[in-house]
Amino acid sequence: MVVVLEKNVTQEQLENIIKHLEEYNFAVHKSTGEEQIVLGAIGVQLNFDTRKIKILEGVAEVYRITEPFKLASRSFKKENTEIKIKDVVIGGSEVVMMAGPCSVENEDQIFTIAEIVSKAGAKILRGGAFKPRTSPYSFQGLGEEGLKLMRKAADKYGLLIITEVMESSNIDLIEKYADIFQVGARNMQNFPLLRDLGKTTKPIMLKRGLAATVEDLLMSAEYILSSGNKEVMLCERGIRTFETYTRNTFDLSAIPVIHKRSHLPIIADPSHATGLRDKVLPMARAAVAAGADGLMVEVHHEPEKALSDGPQALLPEQFAELMIQVKTIAEVIGRKM
Amino acid sequence: MVVVLEKNVTQEQLENIIKHLEEYNFAVHKSTGEEQIVLGAIGVQLNFDTRKIKILEGVAEVYRITEPFKLASRSFKKENTEIKIKDVVIGGSEVVMMAGPCSVENEDQIFTIAEIVSKAGAKILRGGAFKPRTSPYSFQGLGEEGLKLMRKAADKYGLLIITEVMESSNIDLIEKYADIFQVGARNMQNFPLLRDLGKTTKPIMLKRGLAATVEDLLMSAEYILSSGNKEVMLCERGIRTFETYTRNTFDLSAIPVIHKRSHLPIIADPSHATGLRDKVLPMARAAVAAGADGLMVEVHHEPEKALSDGPQALLPEQFAELMIQVKTIAEVIGRKM
Amino acid sequence: MVVVLEKNVTQEQLENIIKHLEEYNFAVHKSTGEEQIVLGAIGVQLNFDTRKIKILEGVAEVYRITEPFKLASRSFKKENTEIKIKDVVIGGSEVVMMAGPCSVENEDQIFTIAEIVSKAGAKILRGGAFKPRTSPYSFQGLGEEGLKLMRKAADKYGLLIITEVMESSNIDLIEKYADIFQVGARNMQNFPLLRDLGKTTKPIMLKRGLAATVEDLLMSAEYILSSGNKEVMLCERGIRTFETYTRNTFDLSAIPVIHKRSHLPIIADPSHATGLRDKVLPMARAAVAAGADGLMVEVHHEPEKALSDGPQALLPEQFAELMIQVKTIAEVIGRKM
Amino acid sequence: MVVVLEKNVTQEQLENIIKHLEEYNFAVHKSTGEEQIVLGAIGVQLNFDTRKIKILEGVAEVYRITEPFKLASRSFKKENTEIKIKDVVIGGSEVVMMAGPCSVENEDQIFTIAEIVSKAGAKILRGGAFKPRTSPYSFQGLGEEGLKLMRKAADKYGLLIITEVMESSNIDLIEKYADIFQVGARNMQNFPLLRDLGKTTKPIMLKRGLAATVEDLLMSAEYILSSGNKEVMLCERGIRTFETYTRNTFDLSAIPVIHKRSHLPIIADPSHATGLRDKVLPMARAAVAAGADGLMVEVHHEPEKALSDGPQALLPEQFAELMIQVKTIAEVIGRKM
Question: Model's pTM, two decimal places?
């Protein structure tokens, strides 16, 4: 931590600041500049609240110099985390496609879509059985029945399953059927849920919250990692800004930023980021060009009849076209699809 | 719902749009303007996804014309909701003060602070026993032990208790000790938690999420209300913006906005909104001047030793000064304190 | 400037970083911590681009430790800047009211409104003669004719005048009629305009831009101050966020923040911040409670016929009520109105 | 315009609302729904302030149904605007590269960089002679001397020139040397400047402001178009959000959004959007994948010595690599480079 003092700090204030730093177990190095004194507070305390120093008389600014996350950091683990599930590797040289409907609706629907996405080259089937809906009056998902249907469809077409878990009491149930737990944007800082998922043995995809900085996202990953589960992938799905022509603002720069800061894989979800079908294709291409380790997109063969988020689901032929386009783009940057 | 068609819409597209609207059970009124056709889709469907129409060929824009919330709306219930707990009324003519430490730390601390805030005129003791912390390495609260200490201190000084509930599995435990459940900003869209709290019989204070619009906040209140619990109060505690000199941006305009849109009381929390002690006093005054039904502020007699959020806690004498100032401001707008 | 090195920095990288710092004329202090080396770069360079160091191999983070503004800073000038114009003092113990129509429309209108606001206690008449309008098809103001009418009305009722200047070529013209130049939010970073206004001798009110941080605002004030004009007051009028129920988000916390960082007075404009008449009164009260040195509000006796921004103009009786309420609130915090 | 009335609107209020609409020259269609009356206000008034109706008693919501811009709209002009300058076409099938230093610094520098970017395939040389700098103490550009050097360098290497114009009084001077005027983000709503540029005959690139919605950007384009100059291209360069790991948030979704709403070409500037060299390459690829009609990037052969923005400038070899990568991506979506 670096503590910058005010230009007119008194000797008494200076001594008081140093006394506090030492009481908080920091070693103090004093460095006197042209106009200001700067104190280096030596000692790593991951969770130290720098405001404790900022409020002392005579302090101008305080800078934390260590990242607040450790296990999620690239400086803790240099090599990329590769998550292997059967024959699929997430975070390796291949860009992985996760596709499927927003919600599992019935047997016919999930089997039809599983076939479509499998044939076009997807490796992982997405679909919701427990749905977080803004309105209490909206369709909330089929529950366990949805999980069962999804498992059967995935097995028939050789796909893995990713599905959302919304509460700790459902973890065991979902673990029976799914290959990857998804934590939704609205639960990114549901710390008890993160802690409990950290005790499971299946991989977890953690979606970035609408108001979460990249640092917040990595701190939430740290919750899972520090509870014991090391197989965490992140997901950029748009943040909330003042722009209203799109549902959210897709922050694609987060992809190279996360690759620099962390060793964890990062997936991009253009369906939720944009909210409208005709924006999904260009933004999926852009995400791969920016270096995403995978894509998650919504696909539906009858989107007009979908029980949720139909308007952002790609049609089967659009999905097939997407797979062809992103494959070429992946190759431009030395990856496969 | 109002559907604006593109200027060059074809007859075939028009018929297709009308057919869809009718299949979704809307009655359709067509109105032809100078340049464009506008369709009125008559029929209230609280959770209809307007994007289903927006993606049809020939549609330029779609506007939902009914609010997506009902029970929380001022048009559903004209008179203010007043929440009575023993001799305290929240949402009535009195501005109610909730004060206390961020976290319950030990018996001495909570008794000392309870006495301070009670003597200065607070009616409700705040304090965390289960703490949502951004870092897994930070103090997570005393748990049930904290609840017990808080109850004893509150009873001794004639105070009510408000404390945060972070997960459904703790509801029963917390209900034994607390008078008001608090839902934190990060859980504002934890829908299973909202649904489960809707089945309890104690009042709930729902804090606005960092990226939540006022409409989102009212939708989350709707979850609780529609599950059966009608005693909901809201809390403005700052939203996330680009400004960095304050921890969050305190959106005080939300207070008159909510009073117009909803019958639910609205509390303001200047401690979390600003994050620094010397900004709490002016912003607490501003919140009362803007019409808040209550304030929640953090107070600590030894903030430098606090286990969490000490830097934003008011000192006892600052709290006493605050009570005097806001009392006069309350009277300016015809309220008491 | 403080330069934090990566944990695994090499000796060669370290030497290269120090070499660069020295070439940029900094003296370097090295401090070795438990995990990381921290370099203090001593020497004040107000406009140094810290990214020049951030991109060097081996650098983890760089922190500027001096504020980028000087003349606008409280550490440069301790006492509040008081701007005296005839018998009005802005930034002193009195809270000053600026009121009037959005635009000057005709003789009758500006005389009527000048009388209303003067009688209720305003000291300064606001009104636009050159209007920055989002649409090229909207009313753009009366130009010099508007300035003349405004001057006559102000003189008759003993008021000062504040009006907007949009381009350098109009400075001389406006200076003939106005007492205070207003720089609008959209021109806050129109640097040539700021530079040219810095050469005038009349006070300037600089409005905060919609995406401007408090630091940006102070940097723009620095442009004017460094060009020679020391009579600058700032104005908070709302920033752009994701919330849509109000036109902008009124960042009232900026008021105590600016009072701490700078010696310049800060005015609040609740009319533009909220955009709707019924929100102006509560937010004007809140601004005074938060410590604003003055208010700017729009008033119109026939707002339905106003050529611009009628919907946010207060009616005469609302304005009179506002004056009474804010007077009492000002007294609570030891000020007059 | 669509006017939704409150559920309990009185007959008197209804009549008053209709009377106002008619006075504002709208024809009124009344449509009675299950719960609410909806009025269609027929008649196109591009600049009508909908708040005039919103504030009337009995009105719940008002929706403008026509876009506020006309000349910039895709519904006004179906086919893409192609801007031809000598042998370069912007907005056609080719993706155009604009590259060069942030500022022109001296003859040697601009000739060296012009040669580098020309050889790698750029068609347009960028470079600032008049610089908008946040700090009054920063390098403000070489002025006319910079323009002369740039023209000579461009002519030698067969390049066109784009350079920024910050004030109307410089338009004539810059027009003598440049092929394209650039309007910077901070001047996007400098309406007098836009109006004056609308009277010139050279193409204009209008950069999106930091807090500007896509609609705001198109409204500013409308200013230029309605003043007579039809050769306008837009530029996405990042918006301001809460994220701090990047300088701005690059809103790439704006590219397909603008292509749908408008016929004007859209360029992407990853250098300013991200602010750091190692993020420019992935985000440039992403922009082309999203459908940008061109790229503007900063290149410098000695970025450590650059007088401005060196840290975001690509090195020559990085620029060459970028050209190769984006060429392939352009071909994926049927374009050339």
Answer: 0.92
pLDDT at B248: 94
Encode pLDDT of D262-315 as tens digits: 999 999 999 999 988 889 999 999 999 999 999 999 999 988 777 777 778 899
For the C2-63 domain, the top CATH level (class) is: alpha beta
A216 contact residues in B (CB cutoff 8 A): 134
Split chain A (337 residues) into runs of 10 and give each run's mean pLDDT. 87 93 87 79 78 85 82 92 97 97 95 97 96 83 95 98 96 97 97 96 97 96 95 98 92 97 97 90 97 97 80 91 95 91
Task: Give the pair of three-digit tokens for residue A269.
Answer: 């979800």
Residues of A in contact with B192 (CB under 8 A): 166-167
Determine contact, residues A186/A240, Cβ cutoff 8 Å: no
In A, minimum Cα distance to C261 occurs at A60
Cβ–Cβ gap D329/A325 under 8 Å: no
Q: Report the pLDDT value the prediction gives residue A57, as an integer from 0 to 100.
A: 87
Structure-block tokens of residue A254: 């987060």
Gap between the Cα atoms of B249 and B211, Å rounded: 11
> What span, in angstroms and rounded, lies between the C-alpha atoms of B213 and B228?
24
CATH number of C83-332: 3.20.20.70
Per DSSP, helices labelled H in D79-180 are: 107-120, 144-156, 171-177
Element (H, E) at C118: helix C107-120
Question: Which chain B positions have a beta carbon within 8 Å of D40's beta carbon?
Answer: 31, 33, 38, 40
Give the pLDDT confidence score for residue B266 in this predicted structure: 98
Q: How many CA atoms are closer than 13 Å to the CA of C303, on its beta-carbon side? A: 25
Whose tokens are 């019924």? That residue is: C278
- Residues of chain D predicted below pLDDT 70: none
Q: So what's the pLDDT on residue A48?
A: 83
- The CA–CA distances, whole Å, from B207 to B21, B268, C292, D141 equal 37, 9, 27, 50
Using alpha carbons, list the distances in angstroms from residue D76 to A98, B59, D80, D273: 40, 16, 11, 30
Residues pairing with C2 in the sheet: C40, C63
Q: Looking at the partner chain, which of C215, C282, C332 has a beta carbon nearest the beta carbon of B328?
A: C332
Which tens digits make up the pLDDT trace of C61-110? 888 877 888 899 998 899 999 999 999 999 999 999 999 999 999 999 99
β partners of residue A88: A85
Tokens of C235: 């104005």
Structure tokens at B299: 């107070």
3-state secondary structure of C259: helix
Output the CA torsion sign for A312, A316, A322, A327: positive
Residues of each domain in chain D carrying CATH 3.30.70.1140: 2-63
- The residues of chain D that CATH labels 3.20.20.70 are 83-332
Distance CA C271, CA D103 (A): 40
Shortest distance between the Cα of D278 and any Cα of chain A, in A, equals: 8
